[in-house]
Batch of 3 targets.
Target 1
Amino acid sequence: MKKLLIYGILLVVFFVNMGAGCGSQTNDPQPDNFPGIVGKWKLTKTGYYFTKSDGTKVNDTFDTEPRGINIVYEFFSDGRLVVTDLQKNTTAEIRWTLKVNKSDANGILEGQLIQIGSEQKKLAESIGQAGDLTFQISTASNFIALTVDVTKVSAYKEMTLMQNFKKI
């Protein structure tokens, strides 16, 4: 049952991103000037890190392609994010902004990727965030790692959704 809940949460995050409409065009976000994130990125791995009530830490992640998950994010410098599910042949556009806290020549070491839209706000609220949906982000030249705390909607002591993307 817990595994079903876990995969349900994962699917909600993907489908909310797929079905979301654009944010308000009057308040277009201006991401931090970090051109390394602009472009197309394919989801390659996803899943959860969680801590059971007895303190046992579990890494329940998997490669997406063998499971038929074929998601591509395309980041534009003007704050648009186009999310495409190649398996279902669907596309949605939302807004994004980026706050870089710490970086080096190889990428972002610490930052926040904020997805903006009405559905993102609802999802953020459901997992205990105020405002828009905020992921922690780190990057390398051809790699993006996103994480978000989803403990509030889990049965575990702690639970984090992770998503890894590679540049295409």
Target 2
Amino acid sequence: MPEQTDQPNYKQFNDPASVARRFKHKIYRVERKDKAAMLAHFIKSSGYEQAVVITKTKRDADALCGYLVTQGLKAAAIHGSKRSEENEAAAKAFAEGEVNILITTDMILQGLGLSSLPLMISYDLPTETGHYMSRLGCLDERGHAVSLVSPDEQTLLEAIEWVTKLEIPEAELEGFAATDDGDALPQRTKDLKKKPRHRTQRRKTGSKSKEKDDTRSETKQGDN
């Protein structure tokens, strides 16, 4: 395992847009409190053999890992607060297919040397767009980048779309069905309104222009 550093070791991309276009991106809107349940349901129904999941904090990585294990999924967490022996064992288990889901943070993602994975899930959107680009580096050429976006992450989503020059398509996960043992998973977030992306300034500018044109027209009529 690489030595933990104070800053994530992410690559600088001269053309983020061209890099981003190599992959398929998708977002699921969800309340923050429902993210873990949605992620478990998504993984079970998606059919992907392996995935890396990125969380904002080490504590979130551990909590999410524990939850996924209770849902019958083979998951492991890697981060700087774990002993190197634990991290090495988790990385080996993931590489050998004994673990299907690897959960980590941006802080040590690059040092893991992950590549050619079919799926990367942003459990939390990064606060810096460069981190999102680095997350894409662990995917293969046909890889999918999925993001679980809570209402408080709207600004972060817009920043990513601005840099990548993409309007990432949204998808919905049907209402969570009851599990085999009869326990019902939380219902899917209802009526999360889609906020306009990258259009606010344009509309404001257009409105001001229209007001100026109307004022000029009234002035001319008064002069006549």
Target 3
Amino acid sequence: MNRDHIDELAEQQAERRRNLYQGLRTDKTHVEVNKHPFEIVFEYHDGFDLDKFVERFSPILNKYDYIVGDWGFEQLRLKGFFRDETKEVQRSQTIGAVQDYLYEYCNFGCAYFILKNERVIKPKRTSHPRKDDRHGKRGNGSTTNQSRGRSNRSSSKSKQRHKSKSFTTKQKAAPFSEKRQTPAKVNAGSGRQAQTTKQTSGKRHFTIRQK
């Protein structure tokens, strides 16, 4: 498979995704994908491209509080992050660790952006039978089987004693077994305003201001 054929397949896939998801820019810092709202809270080197974002978008990203997009070799990569206050998630999955992510996984000086998800959709949890109920049922069955087993063994021993008196026959019991420079931290809060910064002294840094 040559390069031209790969590019053709990629373009066909992008076209299908454009038909599946519709992007709309409502103002300078707000966009929508299939009417799902996002706010551009930070943009570095004009990193946000609505058409490319729509091409790469997946509904699974709707469960995250923030979406970070970075560019490498003319390809856009998207990754979701939770709020810092989110429980039961690793720190590397929170927005406070975004600078570590950019430093470790992204090309130095690359263009990137951060979107705030304005309507987080948490995935539904599937219900399972209670463990106590399953164990209780198994326990009752086990108790019944044990009672039957003891009754059968008692009856068997009684018969064996009777036979031993009449025929003096001996029986054996049956066997039984069972880095680089640490980047600045993002202070994420609600209602942020996007601010574009320029690269200074080879460091990447951004701030999110409180409105």
